Amino acid sequence: MLSRRLLRIKTVKALYSYFQSGAESIPRSEKELDTAIRKSYELYLMLVALIGEVARVARERIEINRAKLMPTDEDLHPNLRFVENRVVRIIEDSSVLGDAMTRCKASWRGQEAVIKRLYQDMIAAPYYKRYMEAPVPGDEKEAFAADRKLVIDFLSTQIEDNEYLEEALEESSLFWVDDLSYCLGLAIRTIGFLNETSADPEIMPMYKNEEDEQYVETLFRKALLNHEEYFGYIDRFTRNWDFDRIAFMDKIIMLAAMTELVQFPTIPVKVTLDEFIEISKYYSTPGSSVFVNGILDKAVVQLTQEGKIAKQGRGLIDKTVVRAGGNKGQ
User: Fold this and answer.
1) Which terminus of the chain has a lower count of CB atoms within 10 Å, N or C?
2) 248-263 vs 269-283: helix axis angle to the nearest 10?
């Protein structure tokens, strides 16, 4: 399922887009945020299904070679270990995966050239050659583990930092630019859960629960509805700065963080600060994390004194001001 970290990132990006584009329709922007989240889930499903697409190319090559006018002995008696790989078969035959992809309209259609290139890269890779040349284990559990390892090796080796694949995905959807690494991790986890008794992969849901779905909706809408108030706090705590010259992404990150601090009483202050400071390291300027940290620390103290941050749950209340005062001067 999509993590809270990814949901925060998607929300920050949607807020940035809303303010930069001068959008006036909150419902339309909410729909765009929902689309961005769904596209991430779509990419996860596609990565789980990818090895099946590669296996389809492998079978086509086998049939082409068998149909040659003068086939070699190898053409007539090919090594079928990959195309008969049990993990590959489970993925290809999975109605659970198929139904999920149909609902999300996820498909590798139109990416045949990319799939063929992935196949060529795979068969040239050392991990594939070792798998194809090794004797099949007599123990069913060991044999399945070898099949599963092959699929995980493929995903781990061929997908990340693959320029032509990333280029193809970017052309298909701008929403996938930053999602590949995370969704790949989810796909590898899904494959890793398979065992010799599995009939279907355990496809993760888009959201962990209804609370997570409500979380992202509330975070985005409340940030928009209260942005003038929260920007006012930021302005107050940056009086020695030119507010208009502060990196706009910093403002958006602090807006989202302050919204979470106020609107979600069960999320610890430390979690909120750590998450949004981490996001600032990757999505804003090199010095943003220190700046964002300092401003949010001041905001926590002020909002707590005003009673706007009121954490609920054991161990949350007393830690609010302690965490806020602990990072001063950083």
Assistant:
1) C
2) 160
